Amino acid sequence: MDKKQQNMEQAINNLKKMVSTMSHGSITLVIQDSYIVQIEKNEKIRLK
């Protein structure tokens, strides 16, 4: 498996974990040279 494929699979696994643990918010991917170099999670807490 090449480096780009490993990078993509690692990012997808991290994204799945993040999405499953948040109710409201956003996830931002930072990409450099066709590689995902950073994943930012911004979670919102809704007060009712």
Describe this structure in words.
The chain is of the alpha+beta class. It has one domain (3-44). The chain contains one helix and two strands; from the N terminus they run αββ. It has one helix spanning 3-20, and strands spanning 24-32, 35-44. The protein has a two-stranded antiparallel ribbon with strand order 1-2. The longest helix has 18 residues, at 3-20. The N and C termini lie far apart (48 Å). The model has no long low-confidence stretch (mean pLDDT 94).
Question: What's the arrangement of secondary structure elements?
Answer:
Blueprint lengths: L2 H18 L3 E9 L2 E10 L4
Antiparallel strand pairs: 1-2
Question: Could you say which overall geometry the principal axes of the C-alpha atoms support?
Answer: elongated
Side-by-side strand order of the widest sheet: 1-2
Mean pLDDT: 94
Domain tally:
1
- Give the assembly state of these chains: single chain
Helix-and-strand structural type = alpha+beta
The fraction of residues in strands falls at 35-45%
